[in-house]
Write a structure and sequence with these properties.
heterodimer; A: mainly alpha; B: about 500 residues; eight-stranded parallel sheet; 10 strands; about 10% strand
């Protein structure tokens, strides 16, 4: 069966648009800041030297957050949101 | 010098330090930054050196008079008074203390005893669940060791056990004059950091109050806007947990840039919650604000504005039936990173980054439902720059009114809160600051009306406590009071070593 010209064009447009930068941006998670913001966060919190002047760096959990924020905002690798829930 | 486990300094860096307990002065108040071994200690400042020299000088005279050594004298109430006196001489007259008190053991002991029954409600306290494993949290106590905010900080071992319930009860109810506490929790993007479940908070309160035979602990329910199930937990709080107030973090995670940041004035997200909260009668929400690193625009790029009070005025105005208690008074400097710079800014512009914004909200928005809580903010500023602490507290009291400032210490992170209590009891706004700022309200003596309000009466009003109970014999007659009396009789309140363990910068010979 031959695909009609109009249907082929429609499919081509759909496939192309799903690969466009716009579509990639939509899959990114920027709730903790955009890609540039997240990189700044990582530069600060994952630099051990900053712990000399900032106990928050020494506490340690912020670097993990910043790395996940970079993955989410720059690469679209988004961790699933977790419920605020404790094991009994 | 032996390198201990957990010390990250290089060989070259180790050559530049000495063991703190061997060379550092055992002082009741901070005189030098002590490192926990994870970073290079900041050398003693000129002012800290002056304080240390004065304490030694005055303590030697008094110790000789009383026939004891200097270290023993500094562990007494008179020794503590001596330290405040030395701080006054260096930083200016900020703490209410006399030469006579520093020299007279009976006078200083009498003062402490006279204030022992003062009603102190700690509006912000924490402990951790038994299976909490994140040792990074000890960084908070290590800071307190370094800053020497608490002369008894090293009495508990530097393990997570010091943050658990047993030590919480000891530090707050036995080692300090605190009468009631509000137990809180906190969310983190990494669930392994969550401190306590909402059920655990209420269970702890029930257990302690049952043991005491009176109401000693109240509890929060933590809410987590933008988490998938957050409104379910609100409903569970109203129907089952029944906290006295809510706790939340607009910044999402107190220790790192979070994907769950939100705003108090987000009409779609928060207004349905306010409606429910008011209807339920649980109409007070405590919000973590401020406490950001100096380089916050980089560290919290994209989210730091959620730590300011830019979202508070509209929410408070739109919901007059809600009470908004702003934790840390939104003070931006995290653990007083550079208090001298903040002091210079205040002297120049009467502005303290972001607590002044909070202090201006009642007048700017015409609201009376906004409160300033001082946990961590007071502790960190009182020891690093007492004049700045006076400016910080003075501005809140004078712009918001003394009935809008509530006491909190963020215990048990920095050990027993007694040192903080003693510092506020003695704090006064310097005359020149009162005059320059055009302020009318002084803080007054240790048990002044203003300080009684801050220490407990404002929280009592907020949480509907019976003031006859709050100021009556309940806290001297219950089981916890009996345990405390026995503890003190066994010498629980004595023997302070004032030692700090860690590393200090080597003194250099010019």
């Amino acid at each position: 069966m031959r695909m009609s010209g109009r249907l082929f064009t429609l499919l081509a447009v759909l496939i192309t648009s799903s690969l466009s930068p716009l579509a990639l941006a939509q899959s990114k998670d920027e709730r903790a800041g955009n890609c540039d913001d997240a990189k700044k966060q990582m530069d600060y919190f994952c630099n051990e030297q900053n712990s000399a002047n900032d106990t928050m760096v020494a506490v340690g959990t912020a670097c993990r957050n910043a790395k996940l924020n970079v993955a989410a905002a720059c690469e679209g690798k988004v961790e699933e949101d977790k419920a605020y829930k404790f094991d009994k | 010098m032996q390198r201990h486990i957990g010390v990250h300094m290089s060989d070259d860096e180790m050559k530049m330090v000495d063991a703190a307990d061997e060379v550092a002065f055992h002082s009741p108040v901070p005189t030098q930054m002590v490192s926990n071994g994870e970073y290079n200690p900041i050398p003693q400042t000129e002012k800290q050196a002056q304080v240390e020299g004065l304490i030694k000088e005055m303590a030697d005279v008094q110790a000789k008079r009383h026939g004891m050594d200097r270290r023993t004298f500094l562990a007494t109430n008179a020794g503590m008074a001596t330290a405040f006196l030395a701080m006054n001489k260096v930083f200016g007259p900020v703490f209410d203390v006399t030469e006579a008190e520093a020299g007279d053991m009976e006078m200083s002991d009498y003062r402490r005893a006279q204030l022992a029954n003062q009603f102190i409600f700690d509006d912000q306290t924490h402990f951790i669940r038994d299976d909490f494993k994140q040792e990074g949290l000890l960084g908070l106590t290590k800071w307190a060791v370094g800053a020497k905010v608490n002369p008894r900080i090293n009495e508990a071992p530097m393990t997570l056990a010091r943050y658990k319930m047993d030590n919480y009860l000891k530090e707050i109810f036995l080692d300090s004059d605190t009468k009631m506490s509000l137990l809180s929790g906190a969310p983190f993007d990494d669930p392994s950091w969550w401190l306590l479940s909402n059920d655990a908070i209420q269970n702890a309160c029930r257990a302690v109050n049952k043991m005491a035979g009176s109401t000693r602990m109240l509890g929060h329910t933590v809410i987590t806007p933008k988490y998938p199930n957050w409104m379910d937990e609100v409903d569970r709080g109203i129907e089952t947990l029944k906290p006295v107030s809510w706790k939340s973090y607009t910044i999402g995670d107190p220790f790192g840039p979070s994907k769950y940041a939100w705003r108090l004035d987000d009409e779609k997200l928060m207004y349905p919650f306010y409606e429910k909260a008011i209807k339920s009668g649980i109409n007070t929400i405590c919000i973590h604000k401020g406490l950001m690193p100096r380089d916050y625009e980089k560290a919290f790029a994209g989210t730091w504005e959620n730590a300011t009070v830019a979202d508070l005025g509209k929410a408070a105005k739109d919901w007059p039936g809600m009470n908004f208690v702003i934790y840390h008074s939104a003070l931006r400097p995290w653990l007083a990173d550079a208090p001298d710079r903040e002091m210079a800014e205040f002297d120049k512009n009467s502005y303290i980054q972001w607590s002044t914004d909070l202090a201006r909200i009642p007048e700017k928005f015409g609201v009376t439902n906004v409160y300033a809580e001082v946990g961590t903010s007071f502790a960190s500023t009182a020891v690093t720059n007492p004049r700045f602490a006076a400016a910080f507290i003075g501005q809140l009291v004078n712009l918001m009114g003394p009935e809008r400032v509530v006491w909190g210490t963020d215990s048990v992170w920095y050990g027993s809160p007694q040192w903080q209590i003693e510092a506020l009891r003695r704090l006064e706004i310097p005359d020149d600051m009162m005059k320059k700022q055009g302020w009318k309200t002084r803080l007054g003596g240790a048990n002044s009306e203003v300080k009684q309000k801050i220490f407990g009466l404002n929280a009592a009003h907020l949480y509907g406590l019976d003031m006859k109970v709050a100021q009556g014999p309940a806290f001297t007659a219950d089981k916890l009071a009996a345990i405390k009396a026995e503890y003190l009789a066994m010498g629980g309140d004595t023997g302070r070593s004032n030692a700090a363990y860690g590393y200090v910068a080597k003194k250099t010979t010019a």
